[in-house]
Each structure stands twice: as C-alpha cells, then as structure tokens.
Amino acid sequence: MLISPTSWTLTPEDEKALRRGMERLLRESSAHCALLVDRAGQLLAQAGERPAFDATTFATLTAADFSANDQLARLLGETDFTSLCHQGERGSMLVADVARRAILVVLFDSRTTLGLVRLRLRPTVEELARIVDAMASRDAQAGAQRAILAGADDEIDRLFQ
Amino acid sequence: MSMINYASREINCKLVYYGPGLGGKTTNLEHVYKKVSPSTRGKLISLATETERTLFFDFLPVDLGTIRGFKTRFHLYTVPGQVYYNASRKLILKGVDGVVFVADSQIDRMEANQESMQNLYDNMAEYGYDLTKMPFVIQYNKRDLPTAAPINELQAALNPGWEVTQAEKQRLSPDPYHAGEYLTSQIGSGEWIERATHFEAVAVTGEGVFDTLKAISKLVLKTLS
C-alpha cells in the first residue's frame, strides 16, 4: 500500500485552542489579523479581521518565503531566523516559527508598533508550539488520519470517473 | 503533507510537478487553471523570471470533489526545472503527498530527463521520503513532436522499475491505464519489479493533463483509505 510520508489532523478543539491564543495576541498587541500556516503552506487557523486577500495563496507564499529565509539563515551560519518582519507604508507583517512545524503570521498597521507586537508574540508562540506539538505527537501515535477514508475506495473511484 | 481539517471538513493534499526545464510543468497547471470552473479553483500564482521561466514555483489550488463529507483540496505546485535552482526545488518538495514527473519526450532531452529524475530521488531521500512507496506518476509530455522518442525507450530510461522484495507484493498487478500491461511484474531474471504509472501528454493542447492529475490525486486519496 502506498503511504503519504507525512500527514496530520486538525480537530475543531485544536482549531479553537489555536484561535484562542491568536485572539489574545491580537487583543494585547492591537494587531488586526493572525494566521497560522503549516510548513507545507496549508492554513491551519486564523483570527481577527477577515483578510481581504485570498488566504490560501497567502499561506502558500508565506511558507515558501519562510523556508527560503531558513535556508538563507543557514548560509549565514545561523540555524534559523526565528522571526521575520516585512514593513510596508500602511501595513506590516511579522512572521514567526512555531515549533518548526508551523508559522505564525501577524498583520498590523499604524494602530500599534512592531516593538509591541514582537513583545506579545513570544508567549503566544510558546503557547501555540505546545498545541502544535501535542497535535503532532497525537497523530504520530494514533495513525488515525490514515483511516479517514477507510472503505471509501469505491467513492474515490467514482470521484474520478 | 496531507492535512485533515475536521474543523472545516477539508482534506488538503500537496502535489508537486517535477521535471527538467522547459518540459511543460507550468503548462500542465495553466491548462488545469483554464479548464476548471473558477468556483473550484483558486488563483494561479507564478513566481517566474521576466522571461517566464519558473524561478521558485507555480501554485494552483483545486477542489476535486467531496468524499465522506470532506472537501478534497489539492495544492498543485511546480518546481523550477533549471539545474541551478536546486535549493528552491528542494524547498517545494517539503510535505509533498504525490509527485508527477513531467518528462520531455524529445530524444535530445533524454539526459536532462535522467538528471532531473536522479535529482528528484536525491532530494526526496534528503527529506527521508521514499518515492517507491508513495504516490508517483510519470507524464511523457510533447508526444506530438516528431523528435519524440518511442515510449518504450523513455520507459526503459526513466521508469525501469524498482525491485519488489516483499513476498506478498510479488504478484502480477495490471496497469489500470494501459490494457495488457502490468505495474508489478516478473522480469527475465526472475526478479519482481514495480513501475510507476505513466501517461502520454501534449500539455499545450491539454491532452493527458487531466488523466495525469486524476491518477495522482486518486493515488493520494487512497493513502488515506
């Protein structure tokens, strides 16, 4: 049987716990939107104002950007860059690593400062890292995600007829 | 990395189109983008040079339907084919669920195809992924060109098969896409080998593009069944 080399699951409880942590960060930092993206570019959770852009595309580009910067860090002799900041005239974004499994993106504008967002970011990253690590070890133990379509072979075949 | 999102009832999977430069990887995605209803696909993003050569990747998200109440969302990526962009290529393979190797059928591109295939195996191995155990299909593109090599030559060079050592897998397994052919078979020396499924294509006209996409998507979903 073929296997997928890596996979993980996100339950409604995981999503709620992640969102709660991100919402607290937004309240404390006055940033307006936060997105959590896995390292392969999939959007896991979002909090705050609904972004006007396509979140799927944004997640993909964020993951690629962060991965490219990871490699740049290694070329410079660093193990990684734990956070990156892109500053614009009206809006800015701060991107941080979460347990080497995900990336937290925080969008903010002139209602706050980079310093405040960065200050509030650290405890949030630690909290999210605990949740994400727990998700990964649960999936590694259970292998439950493999069976989600068990017995659905006919349905899969029909989908592609 | 397939991600099963019980909160939004979605299964997200990552497919990567790999292969030598100018082989037609981006053209595959462009055709899918053109033909799929805008309601079931997102934007086609291309990080390309000013001469439209892929610099980092192309990306297209597509919904392929619903199974067991879960929407199946496939994220299609291409990699830059040119040899010197290996760092970018490797990054895109992270978390991949299925690979399509787009080979250029032209005889004078045989060496480039082989180099790229070797590079794919090497990059996958660096992540600890085993291409022989995961969804993988080969597309022989540009079949319309007079300079295209015969399929059996391409198969011998790029898809010779890997040895099957597990006794329970040593049995004839028919190729669902080519009548009378087998994906797992015994060769003259008595050794059992397995090959990847292959498709012929002319990506510029769309021929074979959806057959390839359907086959790889199906293989990926079956890893969850």
Could you characterize the architecture of this molecule?
The complex is a heterodimer of chains A (161) and B (225). By secondary structure, chain A is α+β, with helices and mostly antiparallel strands. Chain A has one domain (12-159): Dynein light chain 2a, cytoplasmic (Beta-Lactamase). In chain A, 47% of the residues lie in helices and 23% in strands. The mean pLDDT of chain A is 89. Chain B has helices at 25-35, 86-93, 110-126, 151-158, 209-222, and strands at residues 2-5, 10-18, 45-48, 54-67, 70-78, 98-104, 136-141, 162-163, 173-174, 182-186, 192-194, 197-200. Chain B starts with a strand and ends with a helix. The longest helix of chain B is centred in the middle third of the chain and has 17 residues, at 110-126. In chain B, 26% of the residues lie in helices and 31% in strands. Chain B is of the alpha/beta class and 225 residues long. Chains A and B meet through strand 1, helix 1, helix 2 and helix 4 of A and strand 1, strand 2, strand 4, strand 5 and helix 2 of B. Strand 1 (7-10) of chain A pairs parallel with strand 1 of chain B, so a sheet runs across the interface.
Can you describe this structure in just a few lines?
The complex is a heterodimer of chains A (161) and B (225). With 161 residues, chain A is α+β, with helices and mostly antiparallel strands.
